[in-house]
């Protein structure tokens, strides 16, 4: 990419550079590229993901129309989110490195009809997506992460459930700094052992 488009390496790596990389390089598809290969998840804080190499296998929805009349969630990857408690669920891709789109469906089968679409978003936080929906404890929801137009790239996903008794937005954030990372793992290891 750098030899074809020096801007990408000398100035900034942007969505055009990602598109060039996808066109020029042989990227394997993510393992959750197709709906039938969804990855199970629960509440998460800044979980990394990538749509580079993904194809589009979900349908377009009028509920996903944006100001540019693109009803499709392109280059999509899939997750099954099971709610740990009743409450409002916020799924955010804010801060991701490309122009994202996000859709959520009721149920954990690959029935991705308009009837099962709960929420869809394109640009709530800049060019990134964020949705809120009401969840029921133990119910499964399909999360579809993709991009606008030809946009693909890497980012982070956060899923917060406001319900009780979840014990906070991110139970894996042991040191309560708002991020789940190696510092939380070190706190866990330090506390490992026999309780007094």
Q: Can you put this structure into words, describing what you see?
A:
It is a single chain. The chain has 196 residues and is α+β, with helices and mostly antiparallel strands. It is built from three helices and nine strands. The chain starts with 6 loop residues before the first helix and ends in a 5-residue tail after the last helix. The model is unreliable at 164-169 (pLDDT under 50).
Produce a short descriptive summary:
The chain is α+β, with helices and mostly antiparallel strands and 196 residues long. It contains three helices and nine strands; from the N terminus they run ααβββββββββα. The strands form two sheets. A five-stranded mixed β-sheet has the order 1-3-8-5-6, with no helix packed on it. It has a four-stranded antiparallel β-sheet with strand order 2-9-4-7, with no helix packed on it.
The rounded Rg comes to 18 Å
Using the alpha-carbon principal axes, give the shape: globular
Q: H/E series, N to C?
A: HHEEEEEEEEEH
Strand order of the largest sheet: 1-3-8-5-6
Number of helices: 3
Number of strands: 9
* Residue-averaged pLDDT: 85
Cα(first) to Cα(last) distance is: 58 Å
Which structural category do the helix and sheet elements fall into? alpha+beta
Main sheet summary: 5 strands, mixed
- What is the helix content? 10-25%
Strand-residue fraction?
Answer: 25-35%
Poorly predicted regions: 164-169
């Amino acid at each position: 990419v750098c030899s074809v488009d020096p801007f990408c390496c000398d100035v900034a790596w942007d969505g055009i550079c990602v598109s060039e990389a996808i066109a020029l390089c042989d990227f394997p598809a993510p393992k959750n590229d197709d709906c039938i290969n969804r990855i199970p998840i629960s509440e998460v804080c800044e979980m990394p993901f990538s749509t580079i190499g993904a194809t589009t296998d979900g349908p377009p929805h009028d509920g996903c129309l944006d100001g540019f009349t693109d009803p499709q969630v392109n280059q999509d990857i899939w997750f099954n989110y099971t709610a740990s408690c009743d409450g409002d669920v916020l799924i955010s891709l804010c801060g991701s490195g490309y122009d994202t789109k996000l859709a959520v469906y009721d149920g954990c089968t690959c029935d991705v009809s308009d009837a099962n679409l709960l929420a869809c978003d394109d640009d709530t936080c800049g060019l990134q997506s964020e949705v809120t929906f009401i969840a029921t404890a133990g119910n499964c929801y399909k999360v579809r992460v993709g991009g606008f137009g030809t946009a693909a790239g890497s980012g982070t996903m956060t899923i917060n459930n406001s319900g009780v008794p979840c014990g906070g937005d991110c139970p894996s954030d042991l040191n309560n700094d708002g991020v789940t990372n190696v510092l939380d793992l070190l706190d866990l290891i330090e506390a490992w052992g026999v309780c007094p």
